[in-house]
Amino acid sequence: MTSNLQDIPKPTNPNGRIGVLGGSGLYKMSGVTDVQEIKLTTPFGDPSDSYFLGKVGEFEVVFLPRHGRGHRYTPTEVNYRANVFGLKLLHCKWVVGVSAVGSLQEEIGMGDLILIDQFIDKTKHRKDSFFGEGIVAHAPFSEPCCNVLRDYLLEACTKVKTERDLTVHKSGTYVNMEGPAFSTVAESNLHRSWQGTVIGMTAVAEAKLCREAEISYAVLAMATDYDCWKADGHVTVDVVIKTLKENVIKGQEVIKACIPLIAKHQGPHPQEGNGTDGAMAGAIMTSPSIMPRDRALALWPLIEKYFKMEDIQGPNSRPTDSLVPNEVGAFLAGLGLGLAVFAYHLRK
């Protein structure tokens, strides 16, 4: 296991690494080789668990157990900011969120896969933005999932479907509830009246943070139950786990089929764009002349393409002994001498 970012070589593929957020068993699926455990911290605290960097064929993939190994964190407790920031530090340009969901519509059967294209966010207690504390940004979010990545997932599903009994829905609206309790019957029927397709507890924060990080994000959702709107059965943990165990291979096979499609992507990255025309172009409202220097340094992997270090002139927003974790500071310093000098003066 390593905890030093400088020990992790940059990916050889120009499309970067592919991140997978989901259950702790994903990195143990067949076909994953050369697995190494990487433990990181970030300016936003510790991720849910170690990252697992491995290969599927010749392509590098980073797995992270969203709730920690052994399922230690509730959906509210998951440190989504740290999880996504760590993926950014590990050069993941694409992230697939694997999510167990409840079906809100009759045509979505248990075990079906859904490629989410829209969200309804009902969360109340999530930290789902990297910005704030002196640097304000408003990310465009009308299309919350990357359509290019969704197309790759659909192509992968089509390939897997020729070998397995697989039902795939090309789109769907994910109602993201707070949890950890499941819905009431009244809530479930309300969500159905909103034309919600499925209900879950995790994906929308990941989608928002990936957009701010200019990472292509898509959701591979698997229906495990019918929530509680059907008269003949209500969701329980036992029902969810039983359906997952019966269908987990489907999700694994789709992920494996999708990885080479992503790795061979041609043209500009759909979120990074070319140069300074990425997803966050024009989204950051705060003038660099008043940006707090410590916040700018913490966010530098996200904002470096849009600003020059010498233009960051604001005072620190907190005492200098609580600025940026040492390993992240070392990583940033490794990006160039100018940034190293910036970090040095920040801590003076």
Largest sheet: 11 strands, mixed
Output the radius of gyration.
20 Å
Briefly note the structural class of the backbone.
Answer: alpha/beta
Instruction: Give the strand tally.
Output: 11
How helix-rich are the residues, as a percent range? 25-40%
Query: For the terminal residues, how far apart are their CA atoms?
Result: 32 Å
Order of helices and strands: EEEEHEEEHEEHEHEHHHHH
The number of helical runs is: 9
- On the 0 to 100 scale, the average pLDDT is 89
Which regions have little confidence, pLDDT < 50, spanning 5+ residues? 334-348
Q: Note the quaternary state here.
A: single chain
Q: How would you describe what is shown here?
A:
With 348 residues, the chain is an alpha/beta fold. Helices cover 28% and strands 18% of the residues. It contains nine helices and eleven strands. The protein has helices spanning 80-89, 147-161, 185-193, 203-212, 237-263, 293-298, 300-303, 326-333, 337-346; strands spanning 17-22, 32-38, 51-56, 59-65, 92-103, 113-115, 118-121, 168-169, 173-176, 198-200, 216-225. Helix 2 packs across helix 5 and helix 8 (326-333) runs antiparallel to helix 9 (337-346). Mean pLDDT is 89; it is low at 334-348.
